[in-house]
Amino acid sequence: xxxxxxxxxxxxxNQERYIRxxxxxxxxxxxxxxxxxxxxxDAGTDGTRAIxxxxxxxxxxxRLRLRxxxxxxxxxxxxxxxxxxxxxVCTLEGDDWWLSEDKxxxxxxxxRTHPDYAAVSxxxxxxxxxxxxxxxxPSDPRLLNRDATMELFLQGVTFSCTACLxxxxxxxxxxxxxxxxxxxxxxxxxALCMLFLDAGRVFVMDEALSAYRVAGVDAAHxxxxxxxxxxxxxxxxLQVVEASRRYFRGRYPFTRCVCAGTFFPFCDRLxxxxxxxxxxxxxxxxxxxxxxxxxxxAGRCIQLAVRRLTRRxxxx
Length: 316
Prior knowledge:
The chain has twelve helices and nine strands. By secondary structure, the protein is of the alpha/beta class.
């Protein structure tokens, strides 16, 4: 196979129900450039590996990384990125799929014509196994057909890392970067988004080019968001923010980021129960965020109330 311009990294673990759809959506891409499909399989226990070997045997674009030991989402993802051969690299999780056969070409065309950009992302359509469609993030107009910025990201206005096509800066070994991305076993997207924004400009297309599977049909095929408790998700969030603070050594402020990442999970616990355990976890917040959160919470509540009244035409 000739040198690929793009590496599509497919990460997978116990996704035999979905991996065919993921791979088929990549192999169906219409491009005027060569690309490779690097599949990093994290030592699952179902039939995913056999399916991967079947696909690799009949398509030379597919390269497999089959692990002997499970290492978790973050390390499997990061080491896959480091093994990418392409000038550009993007990611697809094994239970998701691409909606457009022109996804790669659209993103490559953008980076080719915008050399000052580090990455280009897009919206993602949330879909369940029954085909029902839900949200299509990001929806904030400050991002759509605009640049994502570090300032917005640290306010909680995020973009999809897995939707990004990024210039491949992972080929140069960097132990500090590796420790940062893999600091939490399950969450790497926050760190990768930070790295992309730190590397240069990131554009967000106002188009849903890929699908995110909301939840699998059974416990064995559900993703992190479906199987992890709210308290554990919040604990993971605080861990990756702390890892970010250490890695960037004071270059970026994280107090508002912690407050933003605390607000909606805390509101959910007040509404649905479990506030006690969540409050205990909030004791792990950095002291600046602890001091700021009551004021942030009050301000966001007022902001949301005003927005709701405005949508109703000002009638309570």
